[in-house]
Amino acid sequence: MRSKPLCNPARALLWLTLAMAAPLPALANPATAAAPLRTQDIALLAASCANCHGPDGRSTGGIPTLRGLPEAHLLQRLQAFKAGAAKDATVMTRLAKGYDDEQLKALAQWFSKKGQ
Ligand code: HEC
User: Fold this and answer.
1) What ranges do the domains of the chain cover?
2) Checking CA distances to 113, which of 19, 75, 78, 85 falls within 20 to 30 Å?
3) What is the distance in A from the centroid of ligand 1 to the CA of 34?
4) Tens of pLDDT, residues 14-29
């Protein structure tokens, strides 16, 4: 008796296509994108900044402190990093690209409020 192969190239291609297509409707759904950020989500995003900028954005080293800076300044800097327009930047140009505009705004607001 000849056993059927479990996986042939055509079937593999079909699965690959399905796997790639599946998440797309979720990404394209504007309702998903517009979901407001919850405080705990922003806290989580901000926690990843602590490695370099210190706990709550209070730096003890050469990396700038974020805590208590004006929201408009933080947002302007983050947007400049993301756009690649901050010529003095090193790592932030890459990091800022990982966040959408809403997240950058939330982070700017978060750190500016930390000073109050
Ligand atoms: C790997 C270290 C590192 C991490 C992580 C990091 N930063 Fe930075 N950040 C820097 C450095 C270094 C600078 C100085 C500019 C440069 O060289 O890119 C900077 C500069 C900034 C500035 C400009 C401050 C000013 O007054 O000019 C802002 C705003 C900022 N970072 C926000 C953030 C936020 C928000 C996060 C978390 C999402 C974050 N950074 C995560 C290293 C880091």
Assistant:
1) 36-113
2) 85
3) 26
4) 665 656 555 444 445 5
Closest to 42 in 3D by CA, of 93, 97, 90, 113: 113
- Cα gap 4→88, rounded to integer Å: 61
CA distance 11 to 14: 5
Alpha carbon of 20 to ligand 1 centroid (Å): 34
Considering the entire predicted model, what is its pTM? 0.78
**Ligand 1 midpoint to CA 97 (Å):** 12
Structure tokens at 19: 């796997």
Neighbours of 75 (CB within 10 A): 18
pLDDT tens digits, one per residue of 11-69: 666 665 656 555 444 445 555 556 789 999 999 999 999 999 999 999 999 999 999 99
The fold for domain 36-113 equals Cytochrome Bc1 Complex; Chain D, domain 2 (1.10.760)
Whether 76 and 47 have beta carbons less than 8 Å apart is answered as no
